[in-house]
Recover the amino acids of this structure.
Protein backbone atom coordinates (compact mmCIF):
# COMPACT_ATOMS: atom_id res chain seq x y z
CA UNK A 1 0.00 0.00 0.00
CA UNK A 2 1.48 3.37 -1.04
CA UNK A 3 1.34 6.40 1.23
CA UNK A 4 2.62 9.98 1.03
CA UNK A 5 3.72 11.97 4.04
CA UNK A 6 4.38 15.74 3.73
CA UNK A 7 6.42 17.45 6.41
CA UNK A 8 6.81 21.24 6.60
CA UNK A 9 9.30 22.97 8.88
CA UNK A 10 8.98 22.34 11.77
CA UNK A 11 8.64 18.65 10.92
CA UNK A 12 4.95 17.90 11.37
CA UNK A 13 4.00 14.50 9.99
CA UNK A 14 0.67 13.78 8.34
CA UNK A 15 0.12 10.57 6.40
CA UNK A 16 -2.70 10.08 3.94
CA UNK A 17 -2.69 6.36 4.65
CA UNK A 18 -0.54 3.96 6.60
CA UNK A 19 0.14 0.27 6.57
CA UNK A 20 -2.72 -1.66 8.19
CA UNK A 21 -0.33 -2.97 10.78
CA UNK A 22 0.04 -0.39 13.56
CA UNK A 23 3.41 -1.85 14.43
CA UNK A 24 4.70 -0.62 11.09
CA UNK A 25 4.01 3.08 11.81
CA UNK A 26 7.04 5.37 12.11
CA UNK A 27 7.83 6.28 15.71
CA UNK A 28 9.58 9.56 14.95
CA UNK A 29 10.61 11.60 11.94
CA UNK A 30 12.90 14.63 12.03
CA UNK A 31 15.10 16.34 9.45
CA UNK A 32 18.23 14.70 10.89
CA UNK A 33 17.02 11.43 12.44
CA UNK A 34 14.77 8.67 11.12
CA UNK A 35 13.56 5.94 13.43
CA UNK A 36 11.26 3.17 12.26
CA UNK A 37 10.01 -0.14 13.62
CA UNK A 38 10.59 -1.62 10.17
CA UNK A 39 13.32 -3.83 8.84
CA UNK A 40 14.94 -1.48 6.32
CA UNK A 41 14.94 2.22 5.56
CA UNK A 42 16.67 4.34 2.97
CA UNK A 43 16.43 8.02 2.01
CA UNK A 44 17.94 10.38 -0.55
CA UNK A 45 18.33 14.19 -0.63
CA UNK A 46 17.15 15.54 -3.97
CA UNK A 47 17.71 19.27 -3.29
CA UNK A 48 18.11 21.76 -0.43
CA UNK A 49 14.34 22.03 -0.15
CA UNK A 50 13.19 18.53 -1.06
CA UNK A 51 13.87 15.41 0.91
CA UNK A 52 12.39 12.21 -0.43
CA UNK A 53 12.84 8.94 1.32
CA UNK A 54 11.36 5.55 0.70
CA UNK A 55 10.80 3.15 3.54
CA UNK A 56 10.10 -0.52 2.86
CA UNK A 57 8.06 -2.61 5.26
CA UNK A 58 7.63 -6.35 5.20
CA UNK A 59 5.49 -7.70 3.71
CA UNK A 60 3.95 -4.47 2.32
CA UNK A 61 5.60 -1.13 1.39
CA UNK A 62 4.74 2.41 2.39
CA UNK A 63 6.28 5.37 0.56
CA UNK A 64 6.84 8.62 2.44
CA UNK A 65 7.76 12.03 1.02
CA UNK A 66 9.15 14.75 3.25
CA UNK A 67 8.94 18.34 2.05
CA UNK A 68 10.95 20.97 3.90
CA UNK A 69 9.95 24.58 3.24
CA UNK A 70 12.61 27.14 2.52
CA UNK A 71 13.23 29.38 5.54
CA UNK A 72 13.72 32.50 3.43
CA UNK A 73 10.79 34.91 3.42
CA UNK A 74 9.69 36.95 0.42
CA UNK A 75 11.78 40.14 0.02
CA UNK A 76 10.31 43.51 0.92
CA UNK A 77 8.76 45.74 -1.75
CA UNK A 78 8.49 49.30 -0.48
CA UNK A 79 7.49 52.66 -1.93
CA UNK A 80 8.32 55.95 -0.20
CA UNK A 81 7.01 59.42 -0.95
CA UNK A 82 7.75 62.82 0.51
CA UNK A 83 7.69 66.47 -0.41
CA UNK A 84 10.87 68.38 -1.35
CA UNK A 85 13.06 68.72 1.78
CA UNK A 86 11.00 66.12 3.66
CA UNK A 87 14.16 64.13 4.45
CA UNK A 88 13.22 61.31 2.08
CA UNK A 89 16.78 60.86 0.82
CA UNK A 90 18.12 60.42 4.34
CA UNK A 91 15.44 57.85 5.21
CA UNK A 92 16.14 55.92 1.99
CA UNK A 93 19.79 55.64 3.02
CA UNK A 94 18.84 54.37 6.49
CA UNK A 95 16.31 51.86 5.11
CA UNK A 96 18.64 50.39 2.49
CA UNK A 97 21.49 50.18 5.00
CA UNK A 98 19.47 48.13 7.49
CA UNK A 99 17.28 46.06 5.19
CA UNK A 100 19.56 45.66 2.16
CA UNK A 101 16.92 46.72 -0.35
CA UNK A 102 17.77 47.90 -3.84
CA UNK A 103 17.22 51.68 -3.91
CA UNK A 104 15.48 52.76 -7.11
CA UNK A 105 14.96 56.50 -7.69
CA UNK A 106 13.31 57.45 -10.97
CA UNK A 107 15.45 60.58 -11.40
CA UNK A 108 18.71 58.70 -10.91
CA UNK A 109 17.45 55.93 -13.17
CA UNK A 110 16.61 58.40 -15.92
CA UNK A 111 20.08 59.97 -15.79
CA UNK A 112 21.76 56.55 -15.76
CA UNK A 113 19.75 55.35 -18.77
CA UNK A 114 20.69 58.45 -20.75
CA UNK A 115 24.35 58.08 -19.82
CA UNK A 116 24.35 54.40 -20.84
CA UNK A 117 22.83 55.18 -24.23
CA UNK A 118 20.05 52.61 -23.83
CA UNK A 119 17.00 52.69 -26.09
CA UNK A 120 14.86 54.19 -23.33
CA UNK A 121 17.65 56.63 -22.52
CA UNK A 122 17.89 57.81 -26.13
CA UNK A 123 14.15 58.39 -26.31
CA UNK A 124 14.16 60.29 -23.02
CA UNK A 125 17.08 62.47 -24.12
CA UNK A 126 15.20 63.56 -27.24
CA UNK A 127 12.38 64.96 -25.12
CA UNK A 128 14.70 66.59 -22.59
CA UNK A 129 16.76 68.31 -25.30
CA UNK A 130 13.52 69.87 -26.55
CA UNK A 131 12.71 71.06 -23.05
CA UNK A 132 9.76 68.66 -22.80
CA UNK A 133 8.76 66.32 -20.00
CA UNK A 134 9.69 62.69 -20.53
CA UNK A 135 6.44 60.75 -21.19
CA UNK A 136 5.18 58.40 -18.49
CA UNK A 137 5.46 55.32 -20.68
CA UNK A 138 9.23 55.79 -21.06
CA UNK A 139 9.90 56.29 -17.33
CA UNK A 140 7.56 53.44 -16.40
CA UNK A 141 9.48 51.08 -18.69
CA UNK A 142 12.76 52.16 -17.08
CA UNK A 143 11.36 51.48 -13.62
CA UNK A 144 9.84 48.18 -14.74
CA UNK A 145 13.16 47.01 -16.19
CA UNK A 146 15.05 47.97 -13.03
CA UNK A 147 12.60 46.25 -10.67
CA UNK A 148 12.87 43.13 -12.84
CA UNK A 149 16.64 42.84 -12.42
CA UNK A 150 17.91 39.83 -10.42
CA UNK A 151 19.17 41.93 -7.49
CA UNK A 152 15.77 43.61 -7.07
CA UNK A 153 13.98 40.26 -7.22
CA UNK A 154 16.35 38.67 -4.72
CA UNK A 155 16.90 41.49 -2.22
CA UNK A 156 13.66 43.41 -2.58
CA UNK A 157 13.33 47.06 -3.58
CA UNK A 158 12.72 50.56 -2.27
CA UNK A 159 11.07 52.72 -4.92
CA UNK A 160 11.89 56.34 -4.13
CA UNK A 161 9.48 59.13 -5.13
CA UNK A 162 7.68 57.06 -7.71
CA UNK A 163 4.92 56.71 -8.85
CA UNK A 164 3.93 60.38 -8.81
CA UNK A 165 0.57 60.04 -10.51
CA UNK A 166 -2.34 57.64 -10.65
CA UNK A 167 -1.52 56.73 -14.26
CA UNK A 168 2.04 55.75 -13.25
CA UNK A 169 0.74 53.68 -10.33
CA UNK A 170 -1.77 51.97 -12.60
CA UNK A 171 0.94 51.18 -15.15
CA UNK A 172 3.20 49.62 -12.50
CA UNK A 173 0.31 47.51 -11.25
CA UNK A 174 -0.39 46.29 -14.78
CA UNK A 175 3.20 45.01 -14.89
CA UNK A 176 2.66 43.13 -11.62
CA UNK A 177 4.51 45.49 -9.27
CA UNK A 178 2.55 45.91 -6.06
CA UNK A 179 4.29 47.22 -2.92
CA UNK A 180 3.92 45.68 0.52
CA UNK A 181 3.98 49.15 2.07
CA UNK A 182 3.64 52.76 0.92
CA UNK A 183 5.48 55.16 3.25
CA UNK A 184 4.36 58.79 3.22
CA UNK A 185 6.55 61.33 5.03
CA UNK A 186 4.40 64.15 6.38
CA UNK A 187 6.11 67.46 7.20
CA UNK A 188 4.33 70.73 7.91
CA UNK A 189 4.58 73.33 5.16
CA UNK A 190 6.32 75.99 7.27
CA UNK A 191 9.13 73.55 8.14
CA UNK A 192 9.48 72.46 4.51
CA UNK A 193 9.71 76.08 3.34
CA UNK A 194 12.34 76.82 5.99
CA UNK A 195 14.38 73.77 4.98
CA UNK A 196 14.29 74.61 1.27
CA UNK A 197 14.86 78.37 1.48
CA UNK A 198 17.88 77.86 3.73
CA UNK A 199 19.59 75.33 1.45
CA UNK A 200 22.87 76.24 -0.19
CA UNK A 201 25.19 74.44 -2.60
CA UNK A 202 28.97 74.45 -2.58
CA UNK A 203 29.81 74.52 -6.32
CA UNK A 204 33.34 73.27 -5.62
CA UNK A 205 32.54 70.13 -3.62
CA UNK A 206 28.88 69.63 -4.49
CA UNK A 207 28.01 69.46 -0.80
CA UNK A 208 24.62 70.72 0.37
CA UNK A 209 24.53 73.04 3.38
CA UNK A 210 21.74 74.70 5.34
CA UNK A 211 22.26 78.13 6.79
CA UNK A 212 20.51 77.15 10.04
CA UNK A 213 20.74 73.36 10.44
CA UNK A 214 24.03 72.57 8.70
CA UNK A 215 26.06 75.78 8.23
CA UNK A 216 29.37 75.86 6.29
CA UNK A 217 32.53 75.11 8.25
CA UNK A 218 34.48 78.20 7.21
CA UNK A 219 33.92 81.76 5.97
CA UNK A 220 35.67 80.81 2.73
CA UNK A 221 33.11 78.12 1.99
CA UNK A 222 30.24 80.39 3.05
CA UNK A 223 31.37 83.04 0.57
CA UNK A 224 31.13 80.73 -2.43
CA UNK A 225 27.80 79.04 -1.63
CA UNK A 226 25.01 79.35 -4.18
CA UNK A 227 21.23 78.90 -4.04
CA UNK A 228 19.14 76.99 -6.54
CA UNK A 229 16.94 79.27 -8.60
CA UNK A 230 13.79 77.45 -7.46
CA UNK A 231 14.70 77.33 -3.75
CA UNK A 232 12.60 80.38 -3.02
CA UNK A 233 9.48 80.52 -0.86
CA UNK A 234 7.22 81.24 -3.83
CA UNK A 235 8.61 78.42 -5.96
CA UNK A 236 8.69 75.85 -3.14
CA UNK A 237 5.05 76.49 -2.24
CA UNK A 238 4.13 75.88 -5.88
CA UNK A 239 6.10 72.63 -5.88
CA UNK A 240 4.44 71.57 -2.63
CA UNK A 241 1.00 72.18 -4.08
CA UNK A 242 1.81 69.99 -7.07
CA UNK A 243 3.28 67.31 -4.80
CA UNK A 244 0.18 67.17 -2.60
CA UNK A 245 -2.11 66.84 -5.62
CA UNK A 246 -0.04 63.99 -7.02
CA UNK A 247 0.17 62.17 -3.68
CA UNK A 248 -3.58 62.31 -3.15
CA UNK A 249 -4.10 60.62 -6.50
CA UNK A 250 -1.49 57.92 -5.80
CA UNK A 251 -2.85 57.22 -2.31
CA UNK A 252 -6.16 56.14 -3.80
CA UNK A 253 -4.27 53.16 -5.25
CA UNK A 254 -2.34 52.27 -2.06
CA UNK A 255 -4.71 53.44 0.66
CA UNK A 256 -4.86 50.07 2.44
CA UNK A 257 -1.08 49.70 2.70
CA UNK A 258 -0.11 53.31 3.46
CA UNK A 259 1.57 54.45 6.67
CA UNK A 260 1.90 58.16 7.37
CA UNK A 261 5.11 59.06 9.17
CA UNK A 262 5.65 62.23 11.20
CA UNK A 263 8.59 63.88 9.46
CA UNK A 264 8.69 66.98 11.67
CA UNK A 265 10.94 65.27 14.21
CA UNK A 266 14.65 64.40 14.15
CA UNK A 267 15.77 61.99 11.43
CA UNK A 268 16.49 59.27 14.02
CA UNK A 269 12.93 59.50 15.32
CA UNK A 270 11.54 59.45 11.80
CA UNK A 271 13.47 56.27 11.06
CA UNK A 272 12.26 54.66 14.29
CA UNK A 273 8.67 54.97 13.01
CA UNK A 274 9.61 53.48 9.65
CA UNK A 275 11.76 50.77 11.19
CA UNK A 276 8.93 49.63 13.48
CA UNK A 277 6.58 49.27 10.51
CA UNK A 278 9.13 47.37 8.42
CA UNK A 279 10.04 45.07 11.30
CA UNK A 280 6.38 44.10 11.72
CA UNK A 281 6.11 43.52 7.99
CA UNK A 282 9.15 41.23 7.99
CA UNK A 283 7.64 39.21 10.85
CA UNK A 284 4.33 38.92 9.01
CA UNK A 285 6.12 37.56 5.96
CA UNK A 286 7.78 34.90 8.10
CA UNK A 287 4.55 33.85 9.84
CA UNK A 288 3.13 31.59 7.08
CA UNK A 289 6.39 29.62 7.06
CA UNK A 290 6.22 29.01 10.80
CA UNK A 291 2.58 28.00 10.75
Amino acid sequence: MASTCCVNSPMNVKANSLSPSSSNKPKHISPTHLSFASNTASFSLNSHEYLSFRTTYLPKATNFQVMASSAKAEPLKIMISGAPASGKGTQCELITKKYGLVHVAAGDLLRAEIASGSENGKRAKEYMEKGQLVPDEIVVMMVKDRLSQPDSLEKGWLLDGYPRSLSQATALKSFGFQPDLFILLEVSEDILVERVVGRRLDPVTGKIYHLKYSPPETEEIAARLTQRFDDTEEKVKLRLRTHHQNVEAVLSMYEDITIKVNGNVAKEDVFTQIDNALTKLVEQKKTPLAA
